[in-house]
Structure formats: C-alpha cells, structure tokens
From TrEMBL, chain A:
This is V-type proton ATPase subunit a. Its main location: membrane. Keywords: Coiled coil, Hydrogen ion transport, Ion transport, Membrane, Transmembrane, Transmembrane helix, Transport. The chain crosses the membrane at residues 423-447, 468-485, 550-579, 586-605, 637-655, 758-780. InterPro entries: V-ATPase_116kDa_su (IPR002490), V-type_ATPase_116kDa_su_euka (IPR026028). It is a multi-pass membrane protein. The keyword Membrane applies. Pfam families: V_ATPase_I.
Automatic annotation (TrEMBL), chain B:
Belongs to the V-ATPase V0D/AC39 subunit family. It comes from Hibiscus sabdariffa (roselle). Keywords: Hydrogen ion transport, Ion transport, Transport. Subunit of the V0 complex of vacuolar(H+)-ATPase (V-ATPase), a multisubunit enzyme composed of a peripheral complex (V1) that hydrolyzes ATP and a membrane integral complex (V0) that translocates protons. V-ATPase is responsible for acidifying and maintaining the pH of intracellular compartments and in some cell types, is targeted to the plasma membrane, where it is responsible for acidifying the extracellular environment. The keyword Cell membrane does not apply. The lineage of its organism: Eukaryota, Viridiplantae, Streptophyta, Embryophyta, Tracheophyta. The keyword Ligase does not apply. Gene3D superfamilies: ATP synthase (C/AC39) subunit, domain 3, V-type ATP synthase subunit C domain. It holds the Pfam family vATP-synt_AC39. This is V-type proton ATPase subunit. V-ATPase is a heteromultimeric enzyme made up of two complexes: the ATP-hydrolytic V1 complex and the proton translocation V0 complex.
Length: 822, 351
C-alpha cells in the first residue's frame, strides 16, 4: 500500500499516517534489559502483549516489578518524611553517575532503615518531651485550683455522708469499706488522681466516672488554653486538666481503668505546695535537656533528608523507568531454549535504522556475544495509526481523534481542520474587538508556555492551555472575519476609507439606506459602515451571511467528497470511484453546486431573482417559464440537464455497487479472478475480522446485507445533501446571534449608562459591560461557536469520507514518564 | 405498598445511590478471585490487589505483609466509604446507615466483655474490634462486672440501650451468659431494624424485609445448631429466635425441639428457599452450612441491586464488601499457611 502513496494528492506528512511495520525482535536474555531501556529512550515501538493469558505475577519479571514497587514505596516514604520536615525535593538534582538498580535498592533500604530508626528514637524522645510538657501544665494548672477543689470535695463528701446516715435503705454499697463516720479525720483522707483528658471526650468522661462511682466523687476540670501535643498519637489536641477525688480502693481501680479507656494521661501530683514548686523546676530542667537532644536529632535527620532530597528526583525517575522496562519485558515471550526473548512490536518504517542502531548499541554495552535480531513480519492485521505532530498541529489532530482515530493510512481530515476549523469558528464569531481580546488571552498562554507546561494546571486551564494554538488561530481568523463584517464590539468603524454612501440632502439624518446615494467607489474591504444602524441593516446582513454559509458549506462538502476519491485511489478501489465518488459529486453539485453558482451570479449581476423560487420550482414544475427569475441564457435547459443528472445519480449510487461486489466475490470463489483482486473496503474489513481463523478468500458474502448497507448509505447521502447544506446555515444563525448580543450589551448597557451623565452610573455601566462582554460574548459564545464548528467538521465534513475506526500508536517511551504525575 | 419513590427518591437519595452503585462496580470479580487464588505469596496478593480499588490502601505497606494488615487495610477502605456516605446522608437514610453498624457494635461489646473475662489487655482487644462498631466509651466496657453494670455504665449511651432491656440481670458474666446476651441483643436489633424498614415503606421495606428475614432465619438455624448439646433449655432457645422471618412462627417451634443436625435439616427442608441450601449438604454435615448460607446471602444481596430507588443497596453493598473482605482474609490465610488446596473451601464468589 505504501508504494501507491501520492496518487491524486502530494505527499504530506500529516495527510497519511506513517507507514508502519510489524517487527520481531529476538533479544538475548543477558542484554534484554539494556535493549529495552535503549528502545524506551528511542520511543518508537509499540510492543504487543504476547503473554496476555498470563496473570501479572506469573510472568517472567514479576519479581523485578515487585522490587520496583517496593522501591517506589520507599521513595514515597522519603517524600512523606521530607514533606513532614518541610523540605521539598530539589528539582535540579545533582548529576550523578548512573547508579545500578540493585545498588539503588540496597541503598534505599539502608536509608529507609536509618530513617526509621532515627524516627523511632526521635519519637521516643518526643513522647517523653510531650509527657513532660503535659506534666508541667498539669502541675501549674492543678496547683491553682487544687486547694479549693480539695476543700469543696471534702465538704461534698461530708454532706453525702450525712445524707447517707439518714437513708440507710438506699443500695449504695460503695462506701462500705470506709470506717464508720465517727472517725472524721480518717474520712477526710481522700485519694485523688490528676491528669489530662481530651476536651472532646471530657463530658462523656465525667458522666462515666459519675456512673461508675455512683456520684461518689468530686471532679474538677480546667481547660488548657493552647492545644497540647498528645504524647501517644503525636497530634495537637485541646485538653482539660482534671482532678478526681475519690475514696476507696475499688473506686480507684475503676477510675484508673476508665482513665485508660479514655486516653486520659495521669500524672503524679503532690498536695504540698513546696513539693509542687520543686517538681515544677525539676520538670522544667528535664524539658530543656530533652529539647536540646531533640533538636540535635532533628538536625541530623534534616541533614539526611536533604541528602535524600538532592537525589530524590533522579532515583524516582530511575525506579519508574525500571518498572516500565520490566513491564515491557513481561510482554515478551520466552524462547523455547530460554536463552532469548521474542518481542513483537509495531514501529514506523522510518524508525528501522534507529532501532537497529539502538539494538547494536545495547549488545555492545552489555557485552553480549550475540546481537539482537530484528526482522520484519508480514501480517494482515491492521497497523496502528501514527501521526507525527508538533505542538501546533497536535491540538488540531486531537479534535479529529476525539471523533475517531483514523484508519491506517486513510486521508486525515486533520490537515484541513487546521485552517477550516478556525475559519468556520470565525464566521460565527466575527468581531475584531472580541478577536483581539481572545488573541491577547491566548498570547499570554503561549508566551508563558514553558512555565505553564511544566506545572500542573486545573481542569479547565489545562484544556485551554492544550488548545492554545487552536485558540490562537481562531482569534486571528475572527479578527479577519470581524474586519469583513466591520464590527468591533458591534461598532462599525470606517478604517478603510470613508463610506461609499452619503445623504442626498441634509434632511436624512437617520441614515436610511433609501435616502442614501452612492458618491464614491465601493468600500474597499468588508461591509460598508453606512449599513450599520440603518433600517435595512438586518435584511442585508442576513442575506449576505446566509448565502455565504451555503457557499462555504458546499465548498467544504465538496472537499469531503474529493477526499473520498483520494482514499479510493490510495486503496486502489475503483468501485468507490465510479459508483460512489462520481455520482455523489454529480448529485451534490447539480443541486447545491448550482445554487452556489446562482448566488454568485446574482451577486455579480445585481439581479432581483428569487433564488428560493428557482430552486423549488426546478423540482416542482421544471417546465414552467422562469420569467423574472432568469439569470442567464439557457438557464432552463441547464436546469433540466441538472435535474436529470441528479435523478440518474441516485440509482447509480444505489444499484451497481452491490452487484459488482457480488460478482467480484463469485470470481474469487471460483479461483480465477478475471480482474486483479480489488481490495475493497468491505473485503478488507471482513478480512481484518476473520484474519485469525479463515485464510484468504473465505470471507462470507451476504448479498442482502451488502445491499441494505448500500441502500442506507445512498439514502443517507441523498437526504444528507439537503440536511447538511441546511446545517451550514448555523454559520449565519450564530453569527447573527453574536452580533445582536453584542449590540444589546453595547447599546442597552454602555450607551444607556453614558446618557445619564453621572459618574457612578457610568462606572457601574462599564463594569457590567465588561463582565457581560467577557462572560457571555468571550467565554460562552466562544464555547458555543467552538461546538458548532466542531459539529460541522465531525458530521457534515467527515461523514463524506472518514472511517475513523483505527487505533492509536502508543509507543513505549520514557518521555511519557515525565508527563504523568503521581 | 409502593410509594412514589421514583418521583422523589432522587432528591435526597439519588447521589448516594449512584455512589453506592459505583462502589459496587469496584467489587472483585470471579476473574480477580481466580488470579488471587493462584498467588504464591502475600506479596503476589498485594500486587494483584494494587490493580484494584484496594491499591491506594495497600501501596504504602512495607514488604513483609501479614494477613492482618491486608484485612485491616481492606476494612479501612470499607470504613472510609461508609463514613463518606454517612456524611452525605440525610434522614432517614442516615439512620438506616447507622442501623447497619449496630450488628458490629454488638459483636464488639461481646468481644470486649469476653476478652476482659479472660483477662486480655484492653488495647489489644480494641484493635480487634470492627471499626464500624466503635463507639466513644467502648473501652470502658472492661470496667463492668455484670450485665447491669454493663448497661448502666456504658451501653445506656449507645443506640444498643433499648435492646438491652430484655437481658438485664445482675448475674456475673460468663461465656454462656455472654453468648445468650449476644443473641438476645441481635434478636432485638434485627426486630428493630425490621420494624424501621417497614416504617420506611415502599421498595425499601420489601427488599429489606426479605434480606433481614433471611438473616434472622440463618441466625435461628445457627443458634439451634450451636446450642445442641448445651444446657440451654428449649424455651430459652425459642426465646432467642427473632419474631419474624420465613420460619416464624411454626419453623421456630420445630427448631426449638431439634436435638441433632438432621432434625434441623428436616425442619428446614419444609421451606422451599432453604431446601436448595440443605440439598447441597450430605447428611450429618454442618461444616459447609456456613458457606452455603453465605452463598445464598450473596445471591440475594446481588439481587437487591436489580431494583432502584430503595435503601437496600446500601445494606447489600456493605454486606457484600464484608463478604469480600472475608474472602480476602481466607485466601491470604491459605496462601500464608501454604494450604492452597483449601482456598476454594470458603471463598464465595460475588459475581
């Protein structure tokens, strides 16, 4: 197929996808890793998975992948630690000699162990430090309220005691172990526990304590203002200092258990004020000691993390590459002798030399005795589609790919999309003021391209950034279209000289076109500004834009049909040329091509003929006299011929192709093809489907199915010719909507505010105008015009020729690692 | 009775139903299980799971893995999903979601109380508790000495409090008591849940009553089989059965007097839905009964997803995930202990 490149069209890189070939690589085991690494650097191969029936861990290199996963985990751990320490891995990592993977694994393991140990030590210290801090707080706080609390506790207990004396019957067995109430001095000896409890739990804590001791306790809580670090979890939380007074051993046990359950840390406390002061100073001393130890540890850890951070990116890349290499190696099948690996991969034809070089380099570098062997396989399988795009064409190709990836080597509409897409957009968005705004916005993106492409963007920004060159083209074209329409924020300016029209006399101040006479040459470029604001502005512009839309539509649809001819010659399919391309051309042009001709004629001659009338009565009563609607001599005869051609072309499209296909099939069946075998679309398709089981020439042929298929195609084309042409009228509709909307904002907001002669109203008016322009006209209208241009390309243009059932070429390349984030 | 759920359900429940159905799509499939069953080490399992929704939860685990880590992380995922749904839910869905966890709460209470009885460390016990059944003061359970204290100290604050009213005694706790307490609580819980679902009405009531009835019947059978040969009297046994379900009331009468497994079988085979379960088992066998019940349950739970606009999907999803985690635990254990031949004994495929 590659030899017949050219045909009707000059060779263009983007027009046909790269010729591909299936290559088989036989790589000796010992140099396999290096070879794949070099091929990954090259990035021009798409490996086929030859072990798809095996699960991931049954494959040859599962162990290595696991190792890579482990290393990646260690690296994530480092990153987490670095984030905790407030360090970021330096982007410009120190260029270091290439480190071996096994060495790297050992090194990472060592570093991790060191870091974990350091953390453990640090944690222990930190924990005791936090405990001491808490203790200090408890000592201070509790020291403040302890005496008063103790007093009230004692008082409460006495009171309770006296109550109990009165009601013996109540089943309160709690104070049984207490001596009888006669010995007051002994009773007052209350036990107490001090500590800290998280504030969120303090209510529940109090309640449970109350229930557990049946109210036989005194609890005092004081909140701590600043949150403290919990020694156990290491998190900052708000806490309360509490002191519980209780009596009796059993109550104490219960309270201790409850404290444990609530994560309340208990600290020893002394009743004696003197002792308290001693304890505080002791604790403070310990705290400062610990602090310096911890700081030293932190410094050491920081140092270690910094060394890790210097090489982090490099290691990360290395590990990712390694993982990718082994994933690829897993796709290769093991030779019977187990000495070499066999790979199958798609690659562009032009890359063969580079691949061979890479293979050679790999075998030299790995000291392998046998070099890797590359051979081209012949297959009937459809190769992947690969376009070599650059940053400018990529976005346009994306627009096409979003509809469907081109079949291998079929004509690529992306080439034309680069111009037609922004142009059709501009027809709908024609306003050079808005165009300049759009241009400035996208220029910002383009100027800051380098910076923006390296960082992660939000969803919408990402999309805009990806399509920056599309937007650039769109804005340039809409500036052009704006000049043609002569609109700048809906205001007409006479940039190209004065208007061709002037008033007949002084009385016509409203600038009605009736009252104007032509005084100069025609306005040199675009719409004459005199039309603006006149009563006939809308009818004039509507007629202009409507006709223009039809001309553009017919041109683009013709282009589509011509592209189907390019495909047919390229794939050597005569049937499609004779029974698809030619009748389609005739049908479309005899109806709508003729209409376009009439439009142009009418513009040139200035005739008043009614084109609707001509078109409609061309079908309804072809024999009638044209009368006023005659545009040229012999128009009636021409119309008769065209009508006849259109009528003939329908059965031409419908009938012969299925019968010819059937005959071709029968010929092939008999094994004596009269004509060289024509690989038509349909047979190619069925071969692709049956390539596994059936050999050549065994494909099924269902005449009924083919015929119905053809019938559907014909009906679709005939109806489509009408509806698609009508669909191009959206160009007019959107352009109208855009200009009317901008007129509304300009007149009803800006001019209205201007009229008030009040600075506040003016400012408010300007603000509203700016927001409306940006929000509605620049953003929403851009979106809607974009979508409509998209539709015109996908449906009206591409359905004439585009199959779009190919699949994309995904090369195995390390370059992609950088793109994907974590 | 059908309300017009289709009209109004999506106002509050639509988002969460979509979420839960999305979660369901992440359940492991038979192909996944086949791959998992072929694993040689726990690292293989981790590698396989890293390609599933469990990936983010397992990827940062250092390499010598343990079964408990895998199960813990998988449960964590379930808990995260549950918490997310609970946060988003409005009444009455939030109450419904809370009801789902009460079963775990009961199990946790029983676990802690039994553990303290055998003088195990509370922290250790807490780690074993199911995270869905945690409540604030759960650790305090260790303080209680008898049922009454248990109730008055801790449980009165929890949603389990109303279920406790039937089993408050001042008896000291022992294994038998606790087991009876568990079943009484479960009975009350199921009945309450059942009543709640009936109150919700519509498709929720219909589907949940089916699922809960199955649960109740399964518990009834388990109680019967476990109590054969113990000192539990027939009346006491009868009292532990929930008062709804397919077996209620006549099946319960029969189960209450059963003395061996074959009698249970005789009683159950009168009920067509359970006939198929028992027909899989040979006579005198009760080992495989659990699996058979689980399989039947999974089948029913999957069916709950066939209908829209009801809360049963949340219940079904939680249960299916739990089953999946049980499966993973079993597979991991088999792999870890080199008993791969037994892998298929207890794994219940969900799809």
């Amino acid at each position: 197929m590659g030899d017949s490149r050219g045909g009707c069209c000059p060779p263009m890189d983007l027009f046909r996808s790269e010729p591909m070939q299936l290559v088989q690589l036989i790589i000796p085991m010992e140099s396999a890793r290096l070879t794949v690494a070099y091929l990954g650097d090259l990035g021009l191969l798409q490996f086929k998975d030859l072990n798809s029936e095996k699960s991931p861990f049954q494959r040859t290199y599962a162990g290595q992948i696991k190792k890579c996963g482990e290393m990646a985990r260690t690296l994530r751990f480092f990153k987490e630690q670095m984030l905790k320490a407030g360090l970021s891995p330096s982007a410009t990592s120190v260029a270091q000699t290439d480190i071996d993977v096994d060495d790297l694994e050992v090194k990472l393991g060592e570093l991790e162990a060191e870091l974990i140990e350091m953390n453990a030590n640090g944690e222990k210290l930190q924990r005791s430090y936090n405990e001491l801090v808490e203790y200090k707080i408890v000592l201070k706080k509790a020291g403040d309220f302890f005496p008063s609390a103790q007093q009230s506790a004692t008082a409460q207990r006495r009171e309770m005691e006296s109550n109990q004396m009165g009601e013996e019957s109540i089943e309160t067995p709690l104070l049984q172990e207490q001596e009888t109430s006669t010995d007051l001095s002994k009773q007052v000896k209350l036990g107490f526990i001090t500590g800290l409890v998280p504030r969120g739990k303090s209510m529940v804590f109090e309640r449970i304590l109350f229930r557990a001791t049946r109210g036989n306790l005194f609890l005092k809580q004081v909140p701590i203002e600043a949150p403290v670090t919990d020694p156990v979890s290491g998190e900052k939380m708000e806490k309360n200092v509490f002191t519980v007074f209780y009596s009796g051993e059993r109550a104490k046990n219960k309270i201790l258990k409850i404290c444990d359950a609530f994560g309340a840390n208990r600290y020893p406390f002394s009743e004696d004020r003197g002792k308290q002061a001693v304890m505080i100073s002791e604790v403070s001393g310990k705290i400062s000691d610990l602090k310096s130890t911890i700081d030293a540890g932190k410094l050491h850890q920081d140092h270690l993390l910094r060394t890790i951070g210097d090489q982090f990116e490099q290691w990360n890349l290395k590990v990712k590459k390694e993982k990718l290499i082994h994933h690829t190696l897993n796709m290769l099948s093991l030779d019977v002798t187990k000495k070499c690996l066999v790979a199958e991969a798609w690659s562009p034809v032009f890359a063969k030399k580079q691949i061979q070089e890479a293979l050679q380099r790999a075998s030299v570098d790995s000291n392998s005795q046998v070099g890797a062997i590359l051979q081209v396989l012949h297959t009937r399988e459809l190769p992947p589609t690969y376009f070599r795009t650059n940053k400018f064409t990529a976005a346009f190709q994306e627009i096409v790919d979003a509809y469907g990836v081109a079949k291998y080597q079929e004509a690529n509409p992306g080439v034309y999309t680069i111009v037609t897409f922004p142009f059709l957009f501009a027809v709908m968005f024609g306003d050079w003021g808005h165009g300049i705004c759009l241009l400035l916005a996208t220029l910002i993106l383009i100027v800051r391209e380098k910076k923006l492409s390296s960082q992660k963007l939000g969803d919408i920004t990402e999309m805009t950034f990806g399509g920056r060159y599309v937007i650039l083209m769109m804005s340039l074209f809409s500036i052009y279209a704006g000049f043609v329409y002569n609109e700048c924020f809906s205001v007409a300016l006479d940039l190209f000289g004065p208007s061709a029209y002037a008033c007949r006399d002084l009385s016509c101040r409203d600038a009605y076109s009736i009252g104007l006479i032509k005084v100069r040459n025609t306005y040199p470029f675009g719409v004459d500004p005199a039309w603006h604001g006149s009563r006939t502005e809308l009818p004039f512009l509507n007629s202009l834009k409507m006709k223009m839309s039809i001309l553009l539509g017919v041109a683009q649809m013709n282009l589509g049909i011509i592209l189907s001819y390019c495909n047919a010659t390229f794939f050597g399919n005569c049937l499609n040329i004779w029974f698809q391309f030619i009748p389609q051309m005739i049908f479309l042009n005899s109806l709508f091509g003729y209409l376009s001709l009439l439009i142009i004629l009418k513009w040139f001659t200035g005739s008043q003929a009614d084109l609707y009338h001509i078109m409609i009565y061309m079908f309804l009563s072809p024999t009638d006299e044209l009368g006023d609607n005659q545009l040229f001599q012999g128009q009636k005869t021409v119309q008769h011929v065209l009508l006849l051609l259109a009528l003939v072309s329908v059965p031409w499209m419908l009938l012969p192709k299925p019968f010819l296909l059937k005959r071709q099939h029968e010929n092939r069946q008999r094994g004596q093809s009269c004509t060289p075998v024509q690989v038509t679309d349909d047979t190619l398709h069925s071969e692709a489907n049956h390539s596994h089981g059936h050999g050549h020439g065994h494909e099924e042929f269902e005449f009924g199915e083919v015929f119905v298929h053809q019938l559907i195609h014909t009906i679709e084309f005939v109806l489509g010719a009408v509806s698609n042409t009508a669909s191009y009228l959206r160009l007019w509709a959107l352009s109208l909507a855009h200009s009317q909307l901008s007129i509304v904002f300009y007149e009803k907001v800006l001019l209205l505010a201007w009229g008030y002669d009040n600075i506040v109203i003016l400012v408010v008016g300007i603000i509203i105008f700016i927001f409306a322009t940006v929000g509605v006209l620049l953003i929403m209208e851009t979106l809607s015009a974009f979508l409509h241009a998209l539709r015109l390309h996908w449906v009206e243009f591409q359905n004439k020729f585009y199959e779009g059932d190919g699949y994309k070429f995904y090369s195995f390349s390390f370059a992609l690692i950088h793109d994907e984030g974590d | 009775m059908y309300g017009f759920e289709a009209m109004t359900f999506n106002i509050h429940g639509g988002y969460l139903e979509a979420i839960v159905r999305g979660h369901r799509a992440g359940l492991l499939t038979a192909a996944d299980y086949n791959n998992l069953c072929q694993c040689e080490t726990l690292d293989d399992i981790k590698m396989h799971l890293s390609a599933t929704e469990y990936g983010p939860y397992l990827q940062n685990e250092p390499s010598p893995l343990h079964t408990t880590t895998i199960v813990e992380k998988c449960t964590l995922k379930l808990v995260d999903e549950y918490k997310h749904m609970l946060c988003q839910a409005t009444e009455p869905l939030s109450t419904f979601l809370e009801y789902i966890t009460y079963g775990h709460m009961i199990d946790n209470v029983v676990l802690i109380v039994t553990g303290t009885l055998h003088e195990r460390d509370v922290q250790e016990l807490l780690e074993k508790c199911h995270p869905l059944g945690m409540f604030d003061s759960i650790a305090t359970l260790a303080v209680a000495q008898n049922m009454r204290e248990l109730y008055r100290l801790v449980l009165v604050d929890t949603p389990l409090a109303p279920y406790f009213s039937e089993c408050i005694t001042s008896e000291y706790l022992d294994d038998m008591n606790i087991e009876i307490m568990r079943n009484t609580l479960y009975k009350a819980y199921l009945e309450d849940f059942y009543k709640f679902c009936q109150k919700l009405g519509g498709a929720t009531a219909e589907i949940m009553s089916d699922l809960l009835a199955f649960e109740a019947d399964r518990r009834a059978v388990n109680i019967t089989i476990n109590s054969i040969g113990t000192e539990l009297t027939r009346d006491d046994r009868r009292k532990l059965y929930s008062n709804f379900g397919l077996l209620y009331p006549y099946g319960h009468e029969e189960l209450a007097v059963c003395e061996d497994i074959d009698q249970v079988r005789g009683a159950m085979e009168k009920y067509p839905p359970y006939q198929s379960i028992f027909s899989k088992l040979s006579y005198g066998e009760s080992q495989m009964l659990d699996k058979a019940f689980y399989e039947e349950e999974v089948k029913r739970l999957c069916l709950a997803f066939e209908q829209q606009f009801h809360y049963g999907v949340f219940f079904a999803y939680m249960r299916l995930r739990e089953q999946e985690i049980r499966n993973l635990m079993w597979i991991s254990e088999c792999v870890a202990q080199n008993q791969k031949s037994r892998v298929h004994d207890s794994v219940v495929f969900i799809f």
